[in-house]
Amino acid sequence: MAEVENDAQKLALATTNNNNEVAPPTEKKVKKVVRRKKRPARPQVDPATVKNELPPQTGTIYNVWYNKWSGGDREDKYSSQTKAPNRCVISTDAGYTRADAHPGTPFCLYFARGICPKGQDCDYRHALPGPYDIPPQNQDCFGRDRFSDYRDDMGGVGSFSRQNRTIYVGRIHVSDDIEEIVARHFAEWGSIERIRVLNSRGVAFITYTNEANAQFAKEAMAHQSLDHNEILNVRWATEDPNPMARKREARRIEEQAADAIRKALPEAFVAEIEGKDPEARKRRKIESSYGLEGYEAPDEVHFARGANAVNPRGREGYELENEQRLMLEAAEDAQAAEEALYEQQQQQPEPEKGGILSSSTLAALQSAKVSVASKPKAVAPAGPLVAYDSDSD
């Protein structure tokens, strides 16, 4: 028996023998992130070939600030059929400029047309508008001022009265694969939501995801050609008279507003409102049952506010009908309030000379609340598409 115990002790000592040798440290694998340097924007045309000439007269008044003629609502149909001298290529022309040091700088209009001679020395951005490049409501992505209404030929800068993400393209050479050709050429300027091609008329309607991309594409593809050397006529599209399209656009605007509200509010509060928080859902189910088994009040009842609200929280700050005081008590309180107001007026100092209204009158005016009824918004007239000044030529 003693021999067995001795063998067990030796085995325990052998198993508990610690090894004091230090293991060599393992080499840490460091992942190197190689960031490509953003290349500078290159000049699209030779600066020596640029001539400061006046544009052809298409209006009645020459605007020195914008270097163009104004006063004419329609472009010259002969000059609109002149092919553009160059075209922007995003893969080779885009790059950083002086404007990258100043966030919010507009994009270069001449870069979109492919004729900017300055390159990296340009004071505007040489890139495509991104999803977060949202220009002011009264300006486009190039920094040009927009107007309250569109021109007669749906050309020019556009209008700030509505958000327009659709451009009209005319003079398209119709072929069997015309939809693929249009999608390939116009997808260079941003994400496209919808393309509709009318083969019988040789026109197309391209709807971009962002309005800034539609503004950029309108200038980039003006007087350009696709695969058959045609000269495109690019204009703003009129409002779609289809009621389904109007509902879809209204739903998209509501979703944008909802996303903006979600970003502004805390995540826990948003999850509780949308019913994504299970604990908040259980609490809401218990609170909206009002002690009734199996009952859950709808949103319009649970979140109602006023003296007659079912939810006790909705009655906070409102006087209930069954808690109203008697007329005699209310009259006594009103008389006491009048006496206190009279004594307070007697104790107030006299108004300074030259003042028209007394201090009590001014206090009453400040406490008064005046509500002004807002005028109903005028409904935009709906009509057929305009001729866009092109396709009958």
Automatic annotation (TrEMBL):
Task: Identify the keywords attached in UniProt to this record, alphabetized.
Answer: Cell cycle, Metal-binding, mRNA processing, mRNA splicing, Nucleus, RNA-binding, Spliceosome, Zinc, Zinc-finger
**Which terms does the record give in the GO molecular function aspect?**
pre-mRNA binding; U6 snRNA binding; zinc ion binding
The record, for InterPro entries, names: Cwc2/Slt11, Cwc2_RRM, Nucleotide-bd_a/b_plait_sf, RBD_domain_sf, RRM_dom, Torus, Znf_CCCH, Znf_CCCH_sf
Protein name stated in the entry: Pre-mRNA-splicing factor CWC2
SMART domains on file: RRM (SM00360), ZnF_C3H1 (SM00356)
What's the family? Answer: Belongs to the RRM CWC2 family.
What is a single cellular component term in the Gene Ontology annotation?
U2-type catalytic step 1 spliceosome
Q: Which CDD domains match?
A: RRM_cwf2
Q: State the SUPFAM superfamilies in the record.
A: CCCH zinc finger, RNA-binding domain, RBD
Biological process terms in GO annotation: mRNA processing; RNA splicing
Instruction: Give start-end positions of Low complexity composition bias.
Output: 337-349
Transmembrane region positions?
A: none
From the UniProt entry, list the residue stretches annotated as the region Disordered.
Answer: 1-54, 334-359, 373-393
Indicate the principal place this protein occupies in or around the cell.
nucleus
Q: Does the keyword rRNA-binding apply?
A: no
| Lineage of the organism | Eukaryota, Fungi, Dikarya, Ascomycota, Pezizomycotina
In residue numbers, the zinc fingers (C3H1-type) are 103-129
Q: What does this protein do?
A: Involved in the first step of pre-mRNA splicing. Required for cell growth and cell cycle control. Plays a role in the levels of the U1, U4, U5 and U6 snRNAs and the maintenance of the U4/U6 snRNA complex. May provide the link between the 'nineteen complex' NTC spliceosome protein complex and the spliceosome through the U6 snRNA. Associates predominantly with U6 snRNAs in assembled active spliceosomes. Binds directly to the internal stem-loop (ISL) domain of the U6 snRNA and to the pre-mRNA intron near the 5' splice site during the activation and catalytic phases of the spliceosome cycle.
Q: Where is the signal peptide?
A: none
Sequence ranges of Basic residues compositional bias: 29-41
Where is each RRM domain found?
A: 165-239
Cellular location(s): Nucleus
Q: Which Gene3D superfamilies match?
A: 3.30.70.330
Q: Please report the stretch or stretches of sequence annotated as the C3H1-type domain.
A: 103-129
